[in-house]
Amino acid sequence: MMKALQDTTTLHNGVNMPWFGLGVFKVSEGSEVIDAVRMAIINGYRSIDTAAAYGNEEGVGQGIREGLADAGITREELFVTSKVWNSDLDYYSTLAAYETSLKKLGLDYLDLYLIHWPVEGKYKEAWRALETLYKEDRVKAIGVSNFHTHHLEELLKDAEITPMVDQVEYHPFLTQAELHDFCKAHDIQLEAWSPLMQGKLLDHPVLVEIAAKTEKTVAQVILRWDLQNGVVTIPKSIKEARIIQNSQVFDFELTDEDMERISALNENKRVGPDPDNFNF
Protein backbone atom coordinates (compact mmCIF):
# COMPACT_ATOMS: atom_id res chain seq x y z
CA MET A 1 0.00 0.00 0.00
CA MET A 2 1.06 3.62 -0.46
CA LYS A 3 3.74 4.60 2.03
CA ALA A 4 4.93 7.98 0.77
CA LEU A 5 3.63 11.12 -0.95
CA GLN A 6 5.25 10.18 -4.25
CA ASP A 7 3.87 6.63 -4.36
CA THR A 8 1.89 5.83 -7.50
CA THR A 9 -0.84 3.58 -8.78
CA THR A 10 -0.35 1.98 -12.18
CA LEU A 11 -3.12 2.80 -14.68
CA HIS A 12 -4.28 0.06 -17.05
CA ASN A 13 -1.96 1.33 -19.80
CA GLY A 14 1.10 1.07 -17.54
CA VAL A 15 1.39 4.79 -16.72
CA ASN A 16 2.16 5.60 -13.08
CA MET A 17 -0.16 8.16 -11.45
CA PRO A 18 0.52 9.57 -7.97
CA TRP A 19 -2.07 8.58 -5.36
CA PHE A 20 -2.02 12.11 -4.00
CA GLY A 21 -2.07 15.51 -5.70
CA LEU A 22 -3.09 19.16 -5.52
CA GLY A 23 -6.41 20.32 -6.94
CA VAL A 24 -6.80 23.97 -7.98
CA PHE A 25 -10.57 24.37 -8.53
CA LYS A 26 -11.60 27.93 -7.60
CA VAL A 27 -7.97 28.97 -7.02
CA SER A 28 -7.57 32.40 -8.62
CA GLU A 29 -5.41 32.90 -11.69
CA GLY A 30 -2.23 34.84 -10.89
CA SER A 31 -0.13 34.77 -7.75
CA GLU A 32 -2.60 32.67 -5.72
CA VAL A 33 -2.45 29.65 -8.01
CA ILE A 34 1.24 30.15 -8.91
CA ASP A 35 2.18 30.09 -5.21
CA ALA A 36 -0.04 27.09 -4.38
CA VAL A 37 1.39 24.96 -7.19
CA ARG A 38 4.97 26.03 -6.49
CA MET A 39 4.62 25.30 -2.75
CA ALA A 40 3.03 21.91 -3.42
CA ILE A 41 5.90 20.83 -5.70
CA ILE A 42 8.56 22.09 -3.30
CA ASN A 43 6.85 20.13 -0.52
CA GLY A 44 6.93 16.87 -2.44
CA TYR A 45 3.68 16.81 -4.42
CA ARG A 46 4.11 15.32 -7.89
CA SER A 47 0.55 15.62 -9.21
CA ILE A 48 -1.27 18.82 -10.18
CA ASP A 49 -4.90 18.83 -11.38
CA THR A 50 -6.46 21.74 -13.27
CA ALA A 51 -9.05 22.25 -16.04
CA ALA A 52 -9.77 24.67 -18.86
CA ALA A 53 -12.90 25.77 -16.99
CA TYR A 54 -10.91 26.81 -13.91
CA GLY A 55 -9.39 29.69 -15.88
CA ASN A 56 -6.02 29.27 -14.17
CA GLU A 57 -3.95 27.10 -16.53
CA GLU A 58 -1.44 29.89 -17.22
CA GLY A 59 -0.80 30.36 -13.50
CA VAL A 60 -0.58 26.60 -13.00
CA GLY A 61 2.04 26.48 -15.75
CA GLN A 62 4.03 29.27 -14.12
CA GLY A 63 3.78 27.54 -10.73
CA ILE A 64 5.02 24.32 -12.33
CA ARG A 65 8.04 26.05 -13.88
CA GLU A 66 8.93 27.77 -10.60
CA GLY A 67 8.29 24.61 -8.56
CA LEU A 68 10.43 22.42 -10.83
CA ALA A 69 13.29 24.91 -10.62
CA ASP A 70 13.04 25.28 -6.85
CA ALA A 71 12.68 21.53 -6.21
CA GLY A 72 15.41 20.65 -8.71
CA ILE A 73 13.29 18.08 -10.54
CA THR A 74 12.32 17.52 -14.17
CA ARG A 75 8.96 17.83 -15.92
CA GLU A 76 8.94 14.03 -16.34
CA GLU A 77 8.71 13.64 -12.57
CA LEU A 78 5.39 15.52 -12.50
CA PHE A 79 1.91 14.28 -13.35
CA VAL A 80 -0.25 17.07 -14.80
CA THR A 81 -3.99 16.75 -15.50
CA SER A 82 -6.36 19.09 -17.33
CA LYS A 83 -9.89 18.73 -18.68
CA VAL A 84 -11.82 19.72 -21.80
CA TRP A 85 -14.84 21.94 -21.13
CA ASN A 86 -18.42 21.25 -22.22
CA SER A 87 -18.47 23.88 -24.99
CA ASP A 88 -15.61 22.07 -26.78
CA LEU A 89 -16.90 18.52 -26.86
CA ASP A 90 -17.13 17.90 -30.60
CA TYR A 91 -14.21 16.07 -32.22
CA TYR A 92 -12.21 18.95 -33.69
CA SER A 93 -13.00 21.38 -30.86
CA THR A 94 -11.65 18.85 -28.34
CA LEU A 95 -8.41 18.49 -30.31
CA ALA A 96 -8.11 22.29 -30.42
CA ALA A 97 -8.95 22.61 -26.72
CA TYR A 98 -6.08 20.25 -25.89
CA GLU A 99 -3.65 22.45 -27.82
CA THR A 100 -5.00 25.54 -26.05
CA SER A 101 -4.51 23.95 -22.63
CA LEU A 102 -0.95 22.92 -23.51
CA LYS A 103 -0.16 26.43 -24.71
CA LYS A 104 -1.56 28.07 -21.58
CA LEU A 105 0.29 25.62 -19.34
CA GLY A 106 3.48 26.00 -21.37
CA LEU A 107 3.84 22.20 -21.61
CA ASP A 108 4.60 19.80 -24.46
CA TYR A 109 2.20 17.13 -23.23
CA LEU A 110 -0.25 16.30 -20.45
CA ASP A 111 -0.06 13.18 -18.32
CA LEU A 112 -3.84 12.93 -18.14
CA TYR A 113 -6.60 14.62 -20.13
CA LEU A 114 -10.23 14.24 -19.05
CA ILE A 115 -13.70 14.99 -20.40
CA HIS A 116 -14.98 17.30 -17.67
CA TRP A 117 -18.71 16.46 -17.78
CA PRO A 118 -20.80 13.84 -19.62
CA VAL A 119 -22.78 16.18 -21.89
CA GLU A 120 -25.43 14.02 -23.58
CA GLY A 121 -24.87 13.45 -27.28
CA LYS A 122 -21.41 15.02 -27.17
CA TYR A 123 -19.08 13.05 -24.97
CA LYS A 124 -18.60 10.17 -27.43
CA GLU A 125 -17.20 12.54 -30.08
CA ALA A 126 -14.93 14.08 -27.47
CA TRP A 127 -13.78 10.61 -26.45
CA ARG A 128 -12.89 9.84 -30.06
CA ALA A 129 -10.70 12.96 -30.04
CA LEU A 130 -9.02 11.87 -26.79
CA GLU A 131 -8.34 8.46 -28.33
CA THR A 132 -6.70 10.22 -31.30
CA LEU A 133 -4.49 12.30 -29.00
CA TYR A 134 -3.56 9.16 -27.10
CA LYS A 135 -2.80 7.08 -30.21
CA GLU A 136 -0.60 9.91 -31.51
CA ASP A 137 1.36 9.90 -28.21
CA ARG A 138 0.31 13.48 -27.50
CA VAL A 139 -0.99 12.56 -24.03
CA LYS A 140 0.10 9.83 -21.60
CA ALA A 141 -3.36 8.81 -20.38
CA ILE A 142 -7.01 9.72 -21.02
CA GLY A 143 -10.10 9.56 -18.90
CA VAL A 144 -13.37 11.11 -17.84
CA SER A 145 -14.76 13.15 -14.98
CA ASN A 146 -18.20 13.09 -13.38
CA PHE A 147 -19.29 9.97 -15.28
CA HIS A 148 -21.88 7.75 -13.63
CA THR A 149 -21.86 4.01 -14.32
CA HIS A 150 -24.42 4.36 -17.12
CA HIS A 151 -22.29 7.05 -18.83
CA LEU A 152 -19.29 4.70 -18.73
CA GLU A 153 -21.37 1.81 -20.06
CA GLU A 154 -22.59 3.97 -22.92
CA LEU A 155 -19.06 5.21 -23.69
CA LEU A 156 -17.63 1.69 -23.66
CA LYS A 157 -20.11 0.54 -26.35
CA ASP A 158 -18.11 2.45 -28.98
CA ALA A 159 -14.79 3.21 -27.30
CA GLU A 160 -11.61 1.65 -28.66
CA ILE A 161 -9.80 2.53 -25.46
CA THR A 162 -11.23 2.17 -21.95
CA PRO A 163 -10.82 5.35 -19.88
CA MET A 164 -7.90 5.07 -17.48
CA VAL A 165 -9.48 7.35 -14.83
CA ASP A 166 -12.91 8.56 -13.69
CA GLN A 167 -12.62 11.63 -11.47
CA VAL A 168 -15.78 12.18 -9.45
CA GLU A 169 -17.07 13.84 -6.30
CA TYR A 170 -16.15 11.39 -3.56
CA HIS A 171 -16.14 11.74 0.23
CA PRO A 172 -17.66 9.99 3.28
CA PHE A 173 -21.13 11.41 2.50
CA LEU A 174 -20.90 10.24 -1.15
CA THR A 175 -19.08 6.91 -1.33
CA GLN A 176 -20.25 5.96 -4.85
CA ALA A 177 -19.94 2.23 -4.04
CA GLU A 178 -21.67 0.96 -7.20
CA LEU A 179 -19.59 3.22 -9.46
CA HIS A 180 -16.41 2.23 -7.63
CA ASP A 181 -17.21 -1.48 -8.15
CA PHE A 182 -17.82 -0.87 -11.85
CA CYS A 183 -14.53 0.99 -12.19
CA LYS A 184 -12.62 -1.77 -10.42
CA ALA A 185 -14.19 -4.37 -12.70
CA HIS A 186 -13.08 -2.41 -15.78
CA ASP A 187 -9.67 -1.38 -14.45
CA ILE A 188 -10.63 2.32 -14.36
CA GLN A 189 -8.91 4.26 -11.56
CA LEU A 190 -11.37 6.22 -9.41
CA GLU A 191 -10.18 9.69 -8.37
CA ALA A 192 -11.81 11.97 -5.78
CA TRP A 193 -12.56 15.63 -6.24
CA SER A 194 -13.84 17.59 -3.24
CA PRO A 195 -12.61 14.80 -0.93
CA LEU A 196 -13.21 17.02 2.12
CA MET A 197 -16.70 18.05 0.94
CA GLN A 198 -15.55 21.68 0.95
CA GLY A 199 -14.92 21.49 4.69
CA LYS A 200 -18.46 20.38 5.56
CA LEU A 201 -17.29 17.16 7.23
CA LEU A 202 -14.60 18.55 9.49
CA ASP A 203 -16.75 18.61 12.64
CA HIS A 204 -18.56 15.30 12.12
CA PRO A 205 -18.49 13.48 15.49
CA VAL A 206 -17.46 10.07 14.09
CA LEU A 207 -14.60 11.64 12.16
CA VAL A 208 -13.59 13.82 15.10
CA GLU A 209 -13.46 10.72 17.31
CA ILE A 210 -11.32 8.73 14.85
CA ALA A 211 -9.03 11.74 14.39
CA ALA A 212 -8.50 12.02 18.15
CA LYS A 213 -7.75 8.30 18.40
CA THR A 214 -5.20 8.37 15.55
CA GLU A 215 -3.78 11.76 16.64
CA LYS A 216 -4.46 13.14 13.18
CA THR A 217 -6.73 15.91 11.83
CA VAL A 218 -10.17 15.06 10.45
CA ALA A 219 -8.95 16.09 7.00
CA GLN A 220 -6.04 13.66 7.26
CA VAL A 221 -8.38 10.86 8.35
CA ILE A 222 -10.67 11.45 5.35
CA LEU A 223 -7.76 11.60 2.90
CA ARG A 224 -6.30 8.41 4.38
CA TRP A 225 -9.73 6.75 3.97
CA ASP A 226 -9.63 7.69 0.26
CA LEU A 227 -6.22 6.09 -0.17
CA GLN A 228 -7.04 2.91 1.72
CA ASN A 229 -10.12 2.58 -0.48
CA GLY A 230 -7.81 2.68 -3.50
CA VAL A 231 -9.03 6.12 -4.59
CA VAL A 232 -6.62 8.78 -5.90
CA THR A 233 -7.23 12.07 -4.11
CA ILE A 234 -6.50 15.74 -4.92
CA PRO A 235 -7.39 18.04 -2.00
CA LYS A 236 -7.27 21.75 -2.73
CA SER A 237 -5.55 24.34 -0.56
CA ILE A 238 -3.74 27.62 -1.06
CA LYS A 239 -2.08 27.77 2.38
CA GLU A 240 1.36 26.19 2.61
CA ALA A 241 0.78 24.81 6.12
CA ARG A 242 -2.43 23.10 4.93
CA ILE A 243 -0.82 21.84 1.73
CA ILE A 244 1.86 20.17 3.87
CA GLN A 245 -0.61 18.93 6.49
CA ASN A 246 -2.93 17.38 3.89
CA SER A 247 -0.04 15.34 2.54
CA GLN A 248 0.95 13.91 5.93
CA VAL A 249 -1.24 10.84 5.57
CA PHE A 250 1.39 8.21 4.85
CA ASP A 251 2.59 7.59 8.41
CA PHE A 252 -0.57 6.00 9.85
CA GLU A 253 -3.24 3.50 8.90
CA LEU A 254 -6.95 3.32 9.65
CA THR A 255 -8.23 0.04 11.04
CA ASP A 256 -10.82 -1.99 9.14
CA GLU A 257 -13.36 -0.90 11.74
CA ASP A 258 -12.50 2.79 11.24
CA MET A 259 -12.77 2.34 7.48
CA GLU A 260 -16.22 0.75 7.82
CA ARG A 261 -17.46 3.41 10.22
CA ILE A 262 -16.41 6.16 7.81
CA SER A 263 -17.95 4.42 4.80
CA ALA A 264 -21.18 3.98 6.77
CA LEU A 265 -21.58 7.77 6.88
CA ASN A 266 -22.69 7.70 3.23
CA GLU A 267 -25.85 9.74 2.52
CA ASN A 268 -25.45 9.98 -1.28
CA LYS A 269 -25.14 13.70 -0.63
CA ARG A 270 -23.38 16.02 -3.10
CA VAL A 271 -21.85 19.47 -2.84
CA GLY A 272 -21.44 19.66 -6.62
CA PRO A 273 -23.93 19.14 -9.45
CA ASP A 274 -25.40 15.73 -10.19
CA PRO A 275 -23.93 14.42 -13.48
CA ASP A 276 -27.45 13.36 -14.47
CA ASN A 277 -28.82 16.84 -13.94
CA PHE A 278 -26.58 19.77 -14.84
CA ASN A 279 -27.19 22.58 -17.29
CA PHE A 280 -23.82 24.03 -18.28
From TrEMBL:
Q: Which UniProt keywords apply?
A: NADP, Oxidoreductase
Positions of the NADP-dependent oxidoreductase domain: 29-267
Q: Pfam families attached here?
A: Aldo_ket_red
Q: Does the record carry Transcription as a key word?
A: no
Please name the PROSITE patterns in this protein's record: ALDOKETO_REDUCTASE_1, ALDOKETO_REDUCTASE_2, ALDOKETO_REDUCTASE_3
Please give the Gene3D superfamilies that the UniProt record associates with this protein: NADP-dependent oxidoreductase domain
Q: Which InterPro entries match?
A: AKR, AKR5G, Aldo/ket_reductase_CS, NAD(P)_OxRdtase_dom_sf, NADP_OxRdtase_dom
Give the family from UniProt. Belongs to the aldo/keto reductase family.
This chain belongs to which protein, by name?
Answer: Aldo/keto reductase
Q: Origin organism of this chain?
A: Planococcus notacanthi
